[in-house]
Design goal:
Order of helices and strands: HEEEEEHEHHHEEEHHHHHEEHEE
Number of helices: 11
Length: 387
């Protein structure tokens, strides 16, 4: 891949002298969805899929960016310091937002750079291509400009960038998983305290299989921000009587006792998901540590049902994959993953049934929706690195 990126840089900018190549992973969340901005736990792992960049400093203050993934894409050029968001749907706002966030932290680049990006994360699949390119940009700039920043701080800065430059009110999970990934492990993260543990993913005779609906989602134009505001409204209602800082502070029993404080029935459903999903995530971590994959799979299915019914971020395509997966031999657990409204399901399937289950689920899905879904067997990967 390094030679491919060097060649791509040469074709784009004329030569590859002095070019360095970097990688940052995407992520899949095993369980714990829409809990990160609600102060709960999440359980993602970085992937071996991700985003690559070839980069070289310039002698002036120009920043030039090119993405191989954009059909008929052009080189996007700006002068350093031009932090205007000229087109909210432009992919370059994600890496350029990181440059802006660095300046907000008092880190100013003394000169510009040329960069080419290439990602092998399926576009719109909900596997955090935006967080991947953000973490990649922050990491590579740290390496080529020599400023000091720990990986956890890179994750926080990239979240700050996406929240404030791109207007996407995401939690910390995606950037944290990309920046802090560890090969062969998932990350059990308390998003309120930023305390985390690595959990070995020892599935033995089982595989993690991602199923892409091929229905692209765009969280910026979806109801993601709306769900966050509904959850925050529910929290404010609960705080009239309870000394809690987030929905993640509540047990399921406590929620059932005090849910009457939330007058709005929709907001009550959103809070129920956040509280119960947090408890499921803790239980799922304990199940994985105990090597109880059957229990882990049951919790995955319960997670999907809550995301579908209480948080209402699923869609017909995701629900079809889950329903067919539950009905298919060898599937231990399955749920939607990511923000929702399209994207992917994550499943755990007995190794001997992966091909058979994929064929059956794929056939039934295509018959139901009229187009194919894609399947990827993935491994938990490491964090950002220079190649």
């Amino acid at each position: 891949m390094k030679e491919y990126m060097l060649d791509l840089f040469k074709k784009t900018y004329g030569s590859s002298d002095g070019v360095r190549v970097f990688f940052a992973p995407g992520r899949v969340n095993l369980i714990g969805e829409h809990t990160d901005y609600n102060g709960g736990h999440v359980f993602p792992c970085a992937l071996t899929l991700g985003t690559y960049a070839a980069v070289r400093k310039r002698k002036d203050n120009k920043i030039r960016m090119y993405s191989k993934n954009i059909a008929k894409g052009n080189i996007i050029e700006r002068n350093y310091g031009d932090f205007s968001v000229t087109n909210k749907n432009n992919w370059s706002n994600y890496p350029y937002g990181v440059v802006w966030a660095l300046s907000q932290k008092g880190i100013h680049l003394e000169q510009g750079f040329d960069v080419v990006y290439y990602g092998n994360i399926p576009s719109g699949a909900g596997l955090s291509s935006s967080a991947s390119i953000e973490v990649l940009t922050a990491y590579m700039l740290r390496e080529i400009y020599g400023y000091k920043m720990e990986l956890q701080d890179i994750a926080l800065m990239c979240q700050y960038s996406e929240n404030n430059y791109n207007g996407m009110n995401c939690g910390i999970m995606d950037q944290f998983a990309s920046a802090m990934g560890k090969e062969g492990h998932a990350i059990f993260l308390d998003t309120a305290k930023l305390e985390y543990e690595y959990a070995p993913v020892n599935l033995e005779n089982k595989k993690i299989v991602i199923m892409n609906t091929n229905k692209k989602h765009n969280l910026g134009t979806s109801k993601y921000n709306e769900r966050r505001s509904e959850s925050e409204a529910a929290l404010r209602s609960l705080q009239t009587r309870l000394p809690i800082k987030s929905l993640g502070d509540m047990s399921a029993e406590q929620f059932e006792e005090y849910k009457y404080l939330i007058d709005n029935s929709v907001n009550r459903k959103r809070a129920k998901h956040a509280v119960y999903e947090n408890q499921r995530t803790i239980q799922a971590y304990n199940a994985l540590v105990a090597n109880d994959i059957e229990r882990f799979g049951q919790l995955m299915i319960q997670s999907h049902e809550s995301l579908r019914d209480d948080y209402e971020v699923s869609c017909r395509e995701l629900d079809i994959l889950v329903a067919e997966g539950i009905d298919c031999k060898g599937v231990c657990g399955i749920r939607m993953t990511g923000g929702g409204f399209g994207g992917c399901c994550v499943s755990i399937i007995d190794s001997e049934y992966v091909d058979e289950a994929s064929a059956i689920i794929g056939s039934r899905y295509e018959k139901a929706v009229g187009y194919k879904c894609d399947f990827y067997t993935v491994l938990p990967g490491g964090g950002p690195a220079e190649l």
